[in-house]
Amino acid sequence: MSNMRGTGSGSGGSLELEHGSVGLLNVIFMSIALMGPGIAVAYDYGPSIPYAGITLPLATLVAMVLILCTANSVGQLGRVYADAGGLYAYVSKALGRRVGFMTGWINLFFQPFFAVLLYLMLANVFQSTLQLKAGVLLPAPIFILFSAGVVYVLTVIGVKTSTNIGVILGAFEIIVLLALALSIIFSSGSHNTLHAFEPHFATQSGFVGVGKGAVFAILAFVGFEGAAVLGEESKNPFKLIPRGVVLSALIVGAFFCITAYAGVIGWGTHDISSYATNSNPWLVLATKFWGVGWVVVFLALINSGVANATAGVNSCSRVFFSMGREGMLPGALAKVHPRFRTPSLAIATNTIVATVIALLADWAWGPLVAFGVTATAFVVLVIVWYMLANVACIVEYTRRRRAELKPLVHIVIPALGFLIMLLPLYYTYHPLSPYPVRIALFFAPAWIVAGGIVLVILEWKAPRIVDATQSIFMEEGVDSATATQSGMATLDESD
Question: Across residues 241-262, what is the average pLDDT?
């Protein structure tokens, strides 16, 4: 279907997104862009190194296996529901109105922060590169505002266009950094070693060090579920969304393992601790192995940040759109652009909120420290989110779809995914980080508690809002069964 159907009420046009506008490649790269593999390579390995040391590649491989457990749960839920609300809709429908409301409350916090994190990180990439290479230090707000403007334009012109651009940008960053990684490996000769995959070479107590390193490496995968929000807009979503989520985790996981190994070997196994403290380690590696080729790596990192932020705003705006459509947020957010058929007001709202937060955080702490503070609160809530996804998968198939139940896929793997996610939650709080990051550690649970209080009040004063979570994001109650009956599940999968 190429046009949005007018099933809703309100001004500003119909309240549905453009169906059948994106294919499998778009779906895969939506999740890849949300993971931001270039930015992740540049900045997400550092926290693992104090624990894993030179076994960072092994820790990354373990993290990939662990995250695939949750990817399995998201994919299996995607076989049931196809919604612009993505994982929010999955959890709401599987676990009921109260849990659905709480997931929405969490969503209201961390969805806008995708863009905040990337605007701050882009500012740091620009600042550290210009200072290192040209001795010039420009204020971060310049880069924050520029990034926000570019991302706004890319998202408002349409999800098909922006996800197609995401394919190009995502492919570029992966190709560049993979090429650098392979050149490091091949040029390192005798410095290549299998010690990187032997647990007893970890900095902390063998398997314990690898395990802790894997915990922090999991953070690089945050966003793998992002393509689920394209449920209403993808072709045959009940097949494409599950495939896209799992394939994106596999593709980026392999990429992370190769780059982690190259980073360790290229930096030097005897000086690996200094990798974790460097402000832009992959720019240093690019200069060392490619000379002036560092410029290409710099562009890849910028592309990664832009693609990551674009995918984040696509995701967040469609959640805001869905919540506006169901009355959970102001109805104006459900309006769509008359030409591009995109949730333009939801995109504008996300852009303004994220930009203001990024500017305030930069003013308080500077871009790099501000990134650490906001990322910490963000990650705590995302971990809870992933744990709920695993529970939702178990409940959905053991209660509602027993005829389709496969114990390994629908019980064992999701249960393992839930238990595994307890580890990063534990190590996020143990030991407690110093100020100002410690603020985020207390803010995240405080936000959840506040949501519980709001839920109690709404149950008393306005239960309709809580009830809305039972049907939120579900396009006329469409699930895999009704879609098959209507012929929706037989749409052409080709791009």
Answer: 88
